[in-house]
């Protein structure tokens, strides 16, 4: 097999134990029987890859066919993996002072930070630190965190967005944020 050979195609079979991809417009001899291939796919904008083997059982169509992958590799930087959040799903509570809190809608969330729908016309100063903040989603325990304002953006309607990075998180909170992000992406988070 030529290591520079590439082919585009579509998934034609997907079961619990096998996958089959049908390459489009492949020149004869480019894909050879019993060669191993690396299949790369984009699911909801996330690049994944897995190993595949060409199967010649169907003489009319040449299929990349193989068992369901034992490992799928996610090849997107964690910082770029952001999930959109509707304001009814969750919000962030910022502690402004003793007994003074501000609930702010979350626009998107990642394992490294979040984007807030800032409720005031004046944004916070870049570098503002909110100790003892928390992320609240229905039916989930609150996730305590420290947030640092790292950018602000004006929106066409005159509102503001504030991008925040997480300060150091304890491992159990970091894992809980990752699980929350994954659940939001898969749509498995149930909101009453």
Short description:
The protein is mainly beta. It has one helix and 13 strands.
SSE blueprint and pairings:
Blueprint: E1 9-14, E2 18-23, E3 36-43, E4 46-55, E5 63-67, E6 73-74, E7 83-84, E8 90-97, E9 100-109, E10 113-118, E11 129-137, E12 143-154, E13 160-166, H1 171-186
Percentage of β-strand residues: over 45%
| Residue share in helix | under 10%
* Major sheet summary line: 6 strands, antiparallel
Oligomer: single chain
Number of helices: 1
Gross morphology: elongated
Residue windows where pLDDT falls under 50 for at least 5 positions: none
Mean pLDDT across all residues, rounded? 78
* First-residue to last-residue Cα separation: 53 Å
Structural class: mainly beta
Pattern of helices and strands: EEEEEEEEEEEEEH
Q: Which descriptors apply to this entry?
A:
single chain; 192 residues; mainly beta; six-stranded antiparallel β-sheet; six-stranded antiparallel β-barrel; 1 helix; 13 strands; elongated
């Amino acid at each position: 097999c030529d290591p520079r050979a590439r082919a585009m195609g579509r998934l034609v079979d997907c079961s619990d134990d096998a996958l089959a991809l049908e390459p489009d417009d492949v020149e004869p001899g480019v894909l050879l029987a019993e060669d191993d291939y690396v299949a790369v796919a984009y699911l909801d904008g996330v690049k994944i890859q897995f190993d595949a083997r060409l199967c010649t059982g169907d003489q009319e169509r040449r299929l990349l066919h193989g068992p369901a992958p034992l490992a799928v590799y996610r090849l997107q930087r964690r910082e770029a993996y952001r999930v959109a959040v509707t304001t009814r799903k969750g919000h962030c509570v910022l502690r402004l002072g003793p007994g003074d809190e501000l609930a702010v809608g979350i626009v998107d969330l990642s394992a490294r930070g979040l984007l807030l729908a800032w409720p005031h016309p004046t944004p916070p100063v870049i570098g503002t630190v909110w100790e003892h903040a928390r992320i609240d989603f229905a039916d989930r325990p609150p996730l305590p965190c420290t947030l640092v304002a790292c950018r602000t953006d004006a929106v066409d309607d005159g509102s503001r967005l504030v991008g925040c990075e997480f300060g150091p998180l304890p491992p159990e909170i970091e894992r809980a944020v990752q699980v929350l992000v994954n659940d939001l992406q898969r749509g498995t988070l149930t909101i009453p």
